[in-house]
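Page 42, continued from yesterday. The earlier attempt failed because a stray header line got pasted into the input along with the sequence. Redoing it now with the clean sequence only.
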Amino acid sequence: MATQEKTVSTSSDDSKGNGAPPLVKRRGLEGVVALDSELSDIDGQKGQLLYRGYDIRDLAENTTFEEVAHLLWKGHLPTRAELDALHEQLQAERALPATTLEMLKQVPDDANPMAVLRTIVSALAFVDDEADEMSPEANYRKALRIASRMPTILAAYDRLRKGQDPMAPLANVSTAYDFLYMLNGEEPGEAAERTFDACLVLHAEHGLNASTFTGRVIGSTLSDMYSAIPGAIGALKGPLHGGANIEVRKMLMEIDASGQSPAAYVKQKLANKERVMGFGHRVYKVLDPRATILSDMLEELSREKGEMQWYDISHEIMETMEAEKGLAANVDFFSASIYHMLGIDIDLYTPIFALSRVTGWTAHLLEQWSDNRLIRPRAEYVGPRNLTATPIDER
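This time it went through. C-alpha cells are written below.
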C-alpha cells in the first residue's frame, strides 16, 4: 500500500512573511527525514545496515560489542590501547551502588523486567553527582555508567526474583561474558560468549527507530541522560517495537507442543488472518541483514548443542512465509531461539535488546547535543470548530 501523504496548509501566523513551504503529513512519520546522523545507514531495498560506514556482517564477524560501542560513541574503531582503556572504564562502573541494589530488593518478583530497567536506570540519577551536568565530557561518562550498569541491574533483578543472591561483576571480561555469568551464576562457554556478543553488536544501533527518536526528542529539550534513556526504554517496551522476539518464542513453543507441522501452523494462521510474528519490517523490503547473521549463528549453536529442533522449525516457518506472503524474517525471528538456547528467560528478551541498544541511544544523544535543536513537529488539527461554551448548568 502506498504511503499516505497529504499537503497541509500552514496557518497565517506560521507562514506570514517567511515564504515557508506547505507542510507534508505522513502517518507515523513514515519516510520523513527529521535530522542528519552519522551513526547508521539502512538500505531497505538492498537489505544493508551500516554503522558509521561499516557493514553489519563485517562488524559482527570481526569486532566485539565493546569495539562497536567505541565506534558509535567516538566515531572510529578503537586501537588496542583505546579498547583496553574502554574495557577498564566499563568494568570500573559495573558494580551497582548500595542504594540501587537495595531498591532492586524492594521490587516485586512479578514486576515486568522492562519496567524494572526503566525505573532503576532513572533512579541512577540519585547516585550520580554529574546527573545534571551537560558538558560533552560529563555526558560521555554518563553514557559509560548507564551502559555498564544496565546488564548488572537486569542480572541482579532476575536472580533476586528467583530467591538467589546477585553475583558481583567479574574483572577483565567482556560485557557479554559478564552478563551471562551474573545471570546464570556460572562462567559461560566460548561459543555462548561469542554468540551473545554478536547479538549485542547486531542490536546496538538502527537509525531513527521509535525508541531512539523518543530519546532524541527528550534530549532535544536539554533534559538529562537519566531522563532520555528511561524514555527510550519505555518506547522499546511496546510490543510493536521491542517485544516481537517474545511473541516469536511463544509461537515456536506453541508449534512444538501442538505436534502440527510448522508449515501447516503458518498456513492456518494466515487463513485466519492472524499475524505471524518475526516477519516483515517497516524499513527492510528484503531479508533483514541481521536475520541472516543470526540464522547462521543459530545453526552453529544448535549443532554444537546437538539440538536442531528450533533451527529446523524456524526455517520451515521462514520458507512457508516466503512462499505464502513474500515476507522475509527480521532480527527478532532468530534472536528468540538463540536467547532460549543460552538459557535466558523469555521475559528478559526485550530488556536484553535494551542492554545493547543503549549504546546507540547514548550515541544519538551525544550527537543531538553536539548541535542541538528542539525537535518540535506539527500536528494537523482535525477536530470541530466554531463551538461556543454554555454555562455549566445549561449543558
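Notes: The chain has 17 helices and five strands.
Reminder to self: strip header lines before submitting.
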